[in-house]
Amino acid sequence: MLRQSASLLMIYLKGQWGKVTVLIVLLVGSISLELIAPQWLGRFVDDATAGAALSTLQLSAVVFVLLTVVRQVFVAVAGYVGEDVSWAATNRLRIDLTRHCLELDMSFQHEYPPGVLVERIDGDVSTLSEFFSTFVFNVIGRVLLSAGIIVLTFVVDWRVGALLLCFAVMVTVVLRRLQGISIPHLRALRQTKSDLSGFLEEQLVSTEDVRANGARPYVMWRLSRHLDELVRRTRSSRVASRVFSSALEVSVAIAGAAVLGFGAVLLQRGTMTIGGIYLAFYYTALLAQSLTSLTFQIDQLQSAFAGMQRISALYYRVGAVPDTGTERVADGPFDVVFDRVRFGYNRERDVLRDVSFRLPAGESLGLLGRTGSGKTSIARLLCRFYDVSGGAARLGGIDVRELALGPLRSRIGVITQDVELFHASIRDNLTLFSDEIADEAIVDAFRRLGLHEWYTNLADGLDTVISGDGRSMSAGEAQLLAFVRVFLHDPDLLILDEASSRIDAGTERLIEKAIDRLLAGRTAIVIAHRLSTVAKVDHILILQDGAVQETGARETLLNTTDSRFAAMLAEARA
Amino acid sequence: MSTYRAVWSIVRRTPRLYALDILFQLLRNGIPLLPALIVREVFDRLTHGEALHAGFWALLAAFVGVAVARVAALLLSTGTDGTLAGAGQALLTRNYLERVLNQPGAEKSEIATGDLVGRVSNDTTLVMNAVVLTLVTFGAGAQAVLAFAIMFSIDPNITLIVFVPMVAAGFLINVTSNSIKKYHGESRQAAGDVSAFLREMFNSVQAVQLANATERVMDQFVRLNEIRRHRSLRSRLFTNVFLGSVWTNTAYLGTGIVLLLSAAKFKNGTFTLGDLVLFIAYLGWITDFTSLVSQSLASLKQAGKSLQRISDGLPAGDGLADLVTHRPTRPAPPETEEHCDRVEHRPLRLLEAQGLSYRYASSGRGVRDVDLRIPRGAFVVVTGGVGSGKTTLLRLVLGLLEPQAGTIRWNGAEVPDPAGFFVPPHSAYTPQVPRLMSATVRQNILLGLPDQQARMSRAVRSAVLERDVEVLDDGLDTMVGPKGAKLSGGQAQRVATARMFAREADLLVFDDLSSSLDVNTERLLWERLGERVDQTCLAVSNRRIAFERASHIVVMHNGSVEATGTFDQLRRNSPSLQRILHGDESPNEQQSRTT
């Protein structure tokens, strides 16, 4: 896991080595200055106690100030460059991660609801970005500085140097021991926050359901359980991330006392000056400071690691629907074959059991059955949102698993009752951000669907911005947009999954002509609960509890008096 | 309402917690002043060449003891910080959701849901971090004052001069504060755009995959990310780089001044090495404080932005004040008496609406001057084409939208607060696109109602859900997944319908109830609805089966009532209803022909 995370880091620093080099130069410069400056302080103390000339003392003071000011300039510039590098790197990571998750199959999408993915890709990657931007300075820089301090104290007196070395070694041993202490707490906090986000997202879209059914107290009660958890996790993660730095602080005090005591003894023996003691004590404080800031970074490092683990889990996640196929279906309409297909969303229960049928190219099939009988699952298998667990689905004679995924999907158009919209212009919602489709083509599609009137009423025409949660249009209007979307897409296989359920009968009839035009020369599967919707299809298939109950040409079934289909029609008329 | 008053209101919700926190802050910050006093004593003794007897070693032991005490105070104060940060976040979140639930149908601002969720979770964190930082700064301030007093007692002149550059830096930072605020706002806005688009992308995975639109959608995402990068860098340039440099340099300048001024005093013995050590140590602490001040000022300013962003996401009203001044009551657990929305039950005899009008500001559509009359036991069906205002009418009647004109009367008396009144036991509602939450089927149906066997089986039967309950993995205790994703569309709709029935309300209001049901289920649903004795219904539907059962039909067209009457009357007299039934031509087509 650690190796995966590290290789992820290297991938995203690639291409930025120029800036990274600048960063390193600034870093080394600032560390050198930070090490040299205190020497002038020590010199000042020795000169002052020895009664040197005022000008000598003042010179030391001025040099000290100059060195520190120049160093701060280095730090500031490096801070900016570091931030720049980190944003560039994490933006690329965000983008790759998003593309990867977008391309994963539907079982993944069900496992990770949008709220959680946003938390991972935006929240976790942002933590990583903060870490990136300070990592160089506060981790690598502090490590180098600490090493420099130990070397310089050895120069003052080897015994004091040895003392500080012992201190640093002890701290780094303790440090490694305590490294993981806050990870589970931080992970739990983040989990709590993403659960809360998920809950809020659900609530913000269901306010009417809740309000008009008197369920406010219930929702507020569920919220308060999330919030209690949030308070508890916030506290425990804050305390846990301080345990380690606290232990460090005590050991720093012990080291400081030891340096002073040891220095005093050496002073009495005459092997050390008082300026030397002060310098050693100053360095101890600086070392402590540097190790402390290192441990703060460890806190961040820990939360970044926790995030990194979740990110690489996503990054290296292999889809359940591998895109390894290379075949393509020949141009033009193709036939659809289900050959003893077995399928379930989990291992316990099969949604489809031994389903077989053949739909010839250019003909249409009406799928009927109770809700939950597996109709939509058939559509999902054809688009390869899932893979079959037994048997095979074939398009144009080729198993869908042997077809390249992109070209396969570009041949299929699906309209479901839930229309997915973006907070974007009508144009972008219809073309899905493609600029290859001319406005004229879009307007023409509106006209062919008889929606020209509706279109001309839009405030800014195709530039009218609609909201992503569909609040700015009715469910029926959204579905009409979905029809236009598929018109523009021009697929060879058309799947209508209760496509007109939210369009009133009048409008449905209006677009029926358009549908007829769309169906002509295409293979089509029409999933419907209304018999009127399948009035014009060539074949009928009735599903019951995942198995084929009846199938055949519509005309034949219609004229067979004991067929299930005829019975359904009779029931509907009654 | 200013940021400071808003933060003060948050503090006043839990005053004791804040008092305790301040106590711990004082301890956490006061104790670290002691080591420098000890070290000063050590250096002065060493300068005087004193022998190393027991007193000297005791000083070193005290040095370590003080560190232990400080760590204890630190951990206690961190724990308290965490508690109050979480509590404050909880307060804001709870008040936010309560406000949103109180005005459910209000026209939402243009802010996408994903952005709203981001605001509630991230911006509340930012606000409370700023509050905690302010408390920490307060402690550090007390520490700085103490340090200043000690330094002043040692050497007033040097102490005063050392503070000059700090005051200058403070001035500089105040001058730049407006730019900080502006840049921060822009970078948060860009961040909101990124997360909203990200959420929409994952909400639209299926459409994107089918259209092979991944790359195009990604282009859009890349663009938004770039904007955020630029704005964040600019914001950071100001806060971290510019402000950080000013403060740190000020501190070192201070140390330089101490060195220069003390050089002469060393010679005449009025300033000792111990004093110098103490001055340099305390300057460090005071610098920490001053940089904390700038940080917490900046973060309070950012918190102001964040609070503004959260209240912008609320329906109209005095947003910010509502978020912080309201003290939410702790909700009682489900299935208890206190749990449900309480409203005095006045059994329905007659519901009337007169002159109801509402026009959506964004689209210009809505309803105009609509009258309705629903006596007890009636079954009123509202019908009409897409966009004719059917759903808007239901929302107005239920108080989910506040009418711009018109009145609603219940048993002849005007209902002053429809939103508060139209809840069970008066009414229950199933929207056109019902939403479920990630919980079990049972929890989704009950939403906190007592779990009574009889009520549940009645509701399940009326909603024709019994067969589904049988086949679901865990029956009524099956988890439905986020947004009910594990159920089929029809199942989800019928769970929502059962939710309505379970409330056993006088008036049932439902919008396009059978839109995703198969023929048999639909027929059963209407049959079983008919079995409910004395049940009053207001329904939106374009289905013949509904018309046949209706006692009264209202035909809507372009936001107005076009015709009303019984099915038999309208079947003969209303061309609109005939079109809906037989669909020779639809209203839309007629319009496009006349234009």
Keywords:
heterodimer, A: 574 residues, alpha/beta, ABC transporter transmembrane region fold, Rossmann fold, 2 domains, 6-stranded mixed sheet, 4-stranded antiparallel sheet, B: 595 residues, 10% strand, elongated, disordered C terminus, helicase activity (chain A), ABC1_TM_dom (chain A), ABC-type oligopeptide transporter activity (chain A), cell membrane (chain A), AAA+_ATPase (chain A)
> Which word captures the global form of chain A?
elongated
CATH topology of the largest domain in chain B: ABC transporter transmembrane region fold
Uncertain parts of chain B: 584-595
Total individual domains of chain B: 2
Total strand segments of chain A? 12
Helix content of chain B: 55-70%
CATH superfamily of the largest domain in chain B: ABC transporter type 1, transmembrane domain
Number of domains of chain A: 2
Strand order of the largest sheet of chain A: 6-9-10-3-11-12
Q: What oligomeric state is this? A: heterodimer
**Ends distance of chain B:** 52 Å
Q: Rough shape of chain B?
A: elongated
- The CATH topology name of the largest domain in chain A reads ABC transporter transmembrane region fold
Number of helices of chain A: 19
Structural class of chain A: alpha/beta
* Unreliable sequence segments of chain A: none
Largest sheet of chain A: 6 strands, mixed
Q: What's the rounded overall pLDDT mean of chain A?
A: 84
